[in-house]
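Listing S7. Sequence submitted for prediction.
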Amino acid sequence: MEHGDEGQDRGRMLPGVANGQAGMPGGAARTGRGGAAQPEGPAARGGAARGRITDRDLEIVRWLARMRFAAGAQIARAFGMSPRMVYRRCHLLCAAGCCRHERVLADAPGVYLATASGCGLAQSPLSAGPARVDLLNFRHDLALVSLSLDLLSTPGARWRSERELRQAMTGRDGVGRAVHVPDGVLLGPDGGRTAIELDLTPKTSRRLSTILRFYSRSRDYDAVRYFLPSRAAAARLAALAEHLPFVAVEHWEVPAAGQTH
């Protein structure tokens, strides 16, 4: 991950089916014909009342909560939807108060985030609640969504986001050392756990060596894959990890704004 590797969940600064019983601020949920959830309260009295929130809509909300946020093109790729359909469904979710849209940088696409009401209605299992945009890490977090979708092209693979990993961890490894949290974990069809690191900005050799030592001692991961857009930085990291056969260093081009691979 980028800045604040051992810090608190950046979701407090700023996408899976949940079994949790999260509250539903801003209006409870009622069930329409066919089992589709519909908001009650202010959202139901507004324009959202003219559309029905479907199970897939709620799945989008849960996914957004896991990933922090995503652009429309990334939602379209993740759910096999057309850009027009993404716009229609996200427009409905925003009108219902389940999502919000933010334009963070002029040269980057706008992104959708799940709201507290959306997390409650979708019963998101993340106790940290809705995420917020962390401007310092915005480009990294946006690129990470695209990288996760690239990695999920492997049949049977599953993705655990950093937010999910932080919730599952106690924050300590039992001997007083802070636990390093990767950007995500790729779960293979064979049950293998691969830690994923996306480094858009170069780290010092000392910092990289510290992270590599953590992975060499950790029993939580079977392998580590680093992705870097800089070939020079990738070569330097590969040299540091030369004697660590479980570490793979790969060059990865960040998609152009508004696009996915």
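Caption to Listing S7: primary sequence and predicted structure tokens for the chain studied. The beta strands are 29-31, 37-39, 70-71, 99-102, 111-114, 158-161, 184-187, 193-198, 223-228, 247-251. Residues 143-251 form one domain.
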